[in-house]
Amino acid sequence: MLCPACRDVLSGRPRVAWPTPVPDGLVTPWVAEAYDGAVRALVVGHKDRGQWGHRRVLGDLLAQAVHGAAAHLDPAVPLLLVPVPSRPGAGRRRGYEATEALVRRAASRVRRVRPTAVAPLLASRGAADQAGLGAGDRAANMAGSMHCPSAALARVGRRWSRAHVLVCDDVLTTGSTAREAQRALEAVGLPPVAVAAVAATPRRAGPGGQEFQTDR
Questions:
Q1: Alpha carbon 126 to chain centroid distance?
Q2: What does CATH list as the number for 17-67+78-202?
Q3: Which of 38, 61, 113, 191 is buried most, with the most CB atoms less than 10 Å from its CB?
Q4: Residue 209 CB burial class (10 angstroms; 0-12, 13-18, ≥19)
Q5: Which residues touch 209 (CB under 8 Å, ≥6 apart)?
Q6: Environment class of 75 (CB within 10 Å of its CB; exposed 0-12, middle 13-18, buried 19+)
Q7: Residues 68/11, Cβ–Cβ less than 8 Å
Q8: Are 14 and 64 in contact (CB under 8 A)?
Q9: What three-state secondary structure class fits 105?
Q10: Per-domain boundaries in the chain
Q11: Could you give the percent of the chain with pLDDT greater than 90?
């Protein structure tokens, strides 16, 4: 489903992508691509247009971001990948959980080199659509919007409670969603060591040369 020309522009090289401004306390965010061009079309197609097959390419890119985040971690300690949850009802409307599908694909790749599991620990209490919101409004919108149900925590078990926890998402924009996911996990004693995402929105130069993070 991806032409050779579009595939050739995918680098798959993980890099750190700090949003501007950086939310206080955000752990290091790793991505594989910029949210632009073919990558943007893939994400939108997978999330909003039912193009399920895109999960393979996007999941493989997410795996590269996970590899980058885990490069300096103890390889003997398992990785626990925690997907950012959809808003309530979004998965039912799509027929699948878009981000979790990417994370499961990524885990199948990362698992070839180190123990890795996927744990959908986070649940959303609901938040407004983030499109068009700036960094401050996004942070306010996401504050307190996620929690970890006790049943989900019980499924993690003793083995995975000692794992390196990574928050995983498709796109990193202002970092407010990732920071809220991090907060909810920290609240139950599972502090993430990093964030991994397929892509980050590009930075653009504003008046006076100041950089800012563009919206989705």
A1: 18
A2: 3.40.50
A3: 61
A4: exposed
A5: none
A6: exposed
A7: no
A8: yes
A9: helix
A10: 17-67+78-202
A11: 58
End-to-end CA distance of the chain: give it in Å, rounded. Answer: 23
pLDDT of residue 96: 67
pLDDT at 89: 55
Q: What is the DSSP string of 42-90?
A: HHHHHHHS--GGGHHHHHHHHHHHHHHHHTTS-TTSPEEEEEPPPPTTH
* 17 has a pLDDT exceeding 80: yes
Angstrom distance (rounded) from CA 165 to CA 193:
6
Query: What residues form DSSP beta bridges with 200?
Result: 34, 172
SS3 at position 156: helix
**Alpha carbons 199 and 187: distance in angstroms, whole number:** 27
Q: What is the DSSP letter of 22?
A: P
Spatial CB neighbours of 132, under 8 Å, sequence gap ≥ 6: 215
pLDDT of residue 129: 53
Q: Bridge-partner residues for 212, per DSSP?
A: 204
Measure the CA–CA gap between 121 and 184, rounded to whole angstroms. Answer: 10
The structure's pTM equals 0.83
